[in-house]
Amino acid sequence: MERRYQGIAASPGITIGTAYLVGSPEVQVCKYRILETEINKELDRWQAAIDATRREIESIKRRVAQEVGFKEAEIFNAYLHVLEDPLLVKAVGEQIRRQRCNVEYILQEIASDLVRRFTEAKNEYLRERASDINDVVSRLLRSLTGQSKRLLAGAEQDIIMVAKDLAPAQTASMRRERVVGFATDIGGKTSHAAIMARSLEIPAVVGLKNITDMVETGDALIVDGSAGMVIVKADAKVLTQYRQAQQKNLQASRKLRKLKGITAVSRDGYRLNVAANIELPEDVRKARKYGAEGVGLFRTEFLYLNRRDLPSEDEQFEAYRQVARQSLPYSTIIRTMDLGGDKFLSRLGTSAETNPFLGLRAIRLSLAYVELFKTQLRAILRASHFGKIKIMFPLISDVEELRQAKAVLNEIRQELRRRRIAFDKHMETGVMIELPSAALTADVLAREADFFSIGTNDLIQYTVAADRINEKVAYLYNPLHPAILRLIKRIIEAGHNERIWVGMCGEMAADPHLTALLFGMGLDEFSTEPSFIPQIKKVIREIFLARSRELAEEVLACATTKEIENCLQAQIPDKEGNHEKEVN
Ligand code: PEP
Ligand code: MG
User: How does DSSP assign 293-329, residue by residue?
Assistant: First the structure.
């Protein structure tokens, strides 16, 4: 029987495939006793499973290293460590001897105890290890039972990952496997899983609440990432309709990609810069493919995640230099690390926080761990010699914080001068405006910044007090709340009054329905996930700035979100992307 579940549209497009439940005990394990004479045979099975799993992980690691990058491949070292951990390897052997039970059963018992202990650990690093253990144990069980492996190994199958949430370690390895979509219980439009799905260009629906209870590994699924819908075991007729829609989407996106070389100039001759948001250095290739005019946001914290050690100054320097060089003749905005919030760094040993999004995050963490910050600043400044780099600080809440960050930057400039190391003396310093406190003091900040970039993902969550990754309050998380639009207007005006340019790198900039409005409000640059770039440019080429300004005025005079939506509805492009009718 066909079943439908509504969640939050996280990454557009339609995909059809087979469900694969991540982290669930997809292998059915039964318990049986063995004879004393069978113990050695059972121990051999255990050793064989360890060897096979090690080979499997090493092979994935090699593939990820070749196709994604060495840093991402390092994630799998943590998995290999689990296979050597005596708490697992030795303990299973001992319990096979003591309990005289089959290895699968013993393994599952010991692993669930270990996972519980790690999950409850005070130390964040240990807590993160719980998911490594889960994944490795699933692989071991698959190897022991021969179950489910067939599913992922079946080259014909397109896999749709179904999970509570997807961690960076899981999404990094997905690039290579046949993953064509994903569906998760938790999350919102701007949660990590959603951003990663868009970056991987695979349709995704998040915030489905309990999809992991409703779907089993092997179920046929349709994920409609544009409508936020997941259909389980669709009827033949529905399946055909979705196949046709999928084909149409593919053709449309091929057509759009052809527009990559065009510039975003409105019909009355005003030019807008459209840049790319990237997470990893290799994303620059994709940015170029879609016609990005530079990098508007390089989320550098991804260099710090999924690894045991911290990235060295040289490693960071190489990454920044690579991005800056490849982006030429355009510029690259490097955002200093935005760790904390939902992107933890276990190596720092920071204690757990009750409200991490209101805690030691981004620039606050950088200023608290100033040596870490200095290492990054050194790397950025050194790389600035090789391209057009601009630096940007995240989560600035007032001008004093900006001054502190700039003082550290100046200290590093002086140090490099003393050491006669070349850097760009004119590198611009920008501020991400993503807190209401920053938006309301944007006039003050603008006097001491070279540019602003509006981070609506955070600005919305902090303004309407709705966690960006909590699907239960996603209905409150609306970029069209009048408060958000007023703040944006205020930020743009404050910037322009001080003659600095103002861009937007939050997800709001990627919504083509809002392009005319934001253009009319005066934004100078949009920065989005690369695949959205052609669509944004296309919209700009179809509209007039003068009319967009009027639209912005009308919208800003509205009292409610509903009124704003109605106002915009009148100019939303039809399926073919025609705006002319209303916006001329
Ligand atoms: C934002 O907050 O809008 C933003 C672009 O930063 P991030 O999504 O990385 O928090
Ligand atoms: Mg942010």
Answer: SSEEEEEGGGGTSSSSSPPPHHHHHHHHHHHHHHHTT
Burial of 42 (0-12, 13-18, 19+ CB in 10 A): buried
What's the whole-model pTM score?
Answer: 0.73
Classify residue 55 by burial, with Cβ atoms within 10 Å: 0-12, 13-18, 19+: exposed
What are 502's strand-pairing partners?
452
State how far the Cα of 299 lies from the Cα of 276, in Å rounded to an integer. 11
Which amino acid is it at 557?
Answer: A
What are the structure tokens assigned to 287, written together?
Answer: 């940015």
Q: Which of 460, 464, 465 is nearest to 508 (CA)?
A: 460
Ligand of minimum distance to the alpha carbon of 301:
1
Ligand 1 mean position, distance from CA 372 (Å) = 21
* 3-state DSSP percent of the chain in helix, strand and coil, to 5: 55, 15, 30
581's tokens: 């009718």
Examine residue 329 and say whether the peptide bond preceding it is cis (omega within 30 degrees of 0).
yes
Side-chain half-sphere CA neighbours of 67 within 13 A: 12
Phi-psi region of 294 (alpha: psi -120 to 50; beta: other; left: phi over 0): left
Mutation to probe ligand 1, out of 189, 277, 298, 299 (largest number of atoms < 8 A from CB): 299
Secondary structure class of 574 (helix, strand, coil): coil
User: Near ion ligand 2, which residues have CB within 5 Å?
Assistant: 434, 455, 458
Tens of pLDDT along the chain (584 residues)? Answer: 899 999 999 998 999 999 988 765 446 677 888 988 999 999 999 999 999 999 988 888 887 777 666 766 777 888 888 899 888 999 999 999 999 999 998 998 898 888 888 877 766 667 667 777 887 888 898 888 775 444 444 445 788 999 888 765 566 656 556 789 999 998 887 777 787 788 788 899 999 999 999 998 889 999 999 999 999 999 999 999 999 999 998 888 888 878 778 999 999 999 999 999 998 888 898 899 999 999 999 999 988 876 668 899 999 999 999 999 999 999 999 999 999 887 766 667 677 788 889 999 999 999 999 999 999 999 999 999 999 999 999 999 999 999 999 999 999 999 999 999 999 999 999 999 999 999 999 999 999 999 999 999 999 999 999 998 888 898 999 999 999 999 999 999 999 999 999 999 999 999 999 999 999 999 999 999 998 999 999 999 999 999 999 999 999 999 999 999 999 987 755 444 444 334 43
What is the residue whose two structure tokens read 């290799």?
A: 282
Q: Could you tell which of 338, 342, 458 is best to mutate to test the pocket of ligand 1, judged by most ligand atoms within 8 Å of the CB?
A: 458
